[in-house]
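Why does residue order matter? Because the sequence determines the fold. Keep that principle in mind as you read this record.
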Amino acid sequence: MPVKQTIPFSFGTFFITFTCHNWLPLIDKVNGHDIVYSWFDHLKSKGHYINGYVIMPNHVHALFSFIETDQSINTIIGNGKRFMAYEIIKRLTEAKETELLSQLSSSVEQKRREKNKKHNVWKLSFDWKDCRDKKFIDQKLDYIHNNPCSKKWNLCVSPAEYIHSSAKYYIAGEQGLYPVTNISKMQDIVFTKVL
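Structure:
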């Protein structure tokens, strides 16, 4: 999957954002929060960490800590987006959302269509920020957790009320729907492979 800039590291903590094609509320449309959680489970099964997240109607913000891997982080995220896209398309098909499916299909560029791509579920690129500084990490977690409360969204009054977020854990100390690893614990984790 194309990115604005390739992640040049094989491990580390990153603030990642990926967005539905044309900002369409596809996650909301298919009630697809569980699809994102399944991908989180896959990341955990590979030894990576989910430190914070919010799943919005049309985008996801997350703070991930990746252990050193032979696969590029870009590939890991690209594969995750592909996995989630298949499930979103499957649910749209089952719901007979033909107009929406047609819109997602007609937006695929010819070059990608030749490589058998059938739908644009996500924006081709994703945004990332390297997170090494505690102040910057705290700023990103605040941004993630306050996103549902913003005037644009107005999905809840307080961040801890939004169930598809790690805000409850960081604010009240109680794990929410999806358990995360506190970012403060990452200083004790060995990110690189031990030879």
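Strands lie at 12-19, 49-55, 59-66, 127-130.
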